[in-house]
């Protein structure tokens, strides 16, 4: 099943005022990249949003309704900082805004950048 275009449109609108945003097909869905780093991905299953947050704030974010640790395949965790949010938990604009802000906070830390080799 393709990603949900309604959720993608809502993410697109929320990130519209940011510079250096582009969309990339990734993880079977549509990823939103800021400065060439993924912040969120509307999942290909059509019902979820994959969010990249700070591993240190991971436990706090997992307490929110509809949030679970992201998996690649059955039972293979993507690790701390990778959270899947059920579409039902994104019904209100403030809920989607929460997740995008959490992802953008991690992005602002500069974390997730590839380190240059010497």
Keywords:
118 residues, globular, 3 helices, alpha+beta, 6 strands, single chain, Aspartate Aminotransferase, domain 1, 26% helix
Textual characterization of the structure:
The protein has helices spanning 5-14, 58-62, 93-108; strands spanning 21-26, 29-34, 37-42, 48-52, 67-69, 82-86. The chain is of the alpha+beta class. It has a single domain (5-108), classed as Alpha-Beta Complex (Aspartate Aminotransferase, domain 1), CATH 3.90.1150.30. It has a six-stranded antiparallel sheet. β1 (21-26) and β2 (29-34) form a beta hairpin. It comes from Naumannella halotolerans. Residues 13-105 form the TfoX N-terminal domain. InterPro entries: TfoX_N (IPR007076).
Describe what is shown at a glance:
By secondary structure, the chain is of the alpha+beta class. It has helices at 5-14, 58-62, 93-108, and strands at residues 21-26, 29-34, 37-42, 48-52, 67-69, 82-86.
- At the first level of CATH, the class is Alpha Beta
**Fraction of helical residues:** 25-40%
Distance between the termini: 42 Å
Radius of gyration: 13 Å
- By DSSP, the count of extended strands is 6
Q: What is the CATH architecture descriptor?
A: Alpha-Beta Complex
Label the structural class: alpha+beta
- Beta-strand portion reads 25-35%
Q: Runs with pLDDT <50, length 5+?
A: none
Largest beta sheet, briefly?
6 strands, antiparallel
């Amino acid at each position: 099943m393709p990603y949900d275009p309604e959720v993608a449109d809502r993410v697109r609108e929320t990130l519209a005022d940011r510079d250096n945003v582009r969309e990339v097909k990734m993880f079977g869905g549509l990823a939103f990249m800021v400065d060439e780093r993924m912040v969120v991905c509307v999942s290909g299953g059509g019902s979820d949003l994959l969010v990249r947050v700070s591993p240190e704030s991971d436990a706090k974010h997992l307490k929110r309704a509809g949030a679970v640790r992201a998996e690649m395949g059955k039972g293979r965790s993507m690790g701390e900082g990778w959270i899947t949010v059920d579409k039902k938990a994104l019904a209100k604009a403030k809920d989607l805004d929460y997740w995008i802000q959490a992802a953008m906070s991690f992005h602002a830390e500069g974390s997730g950048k590839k380190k240059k080799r010497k």
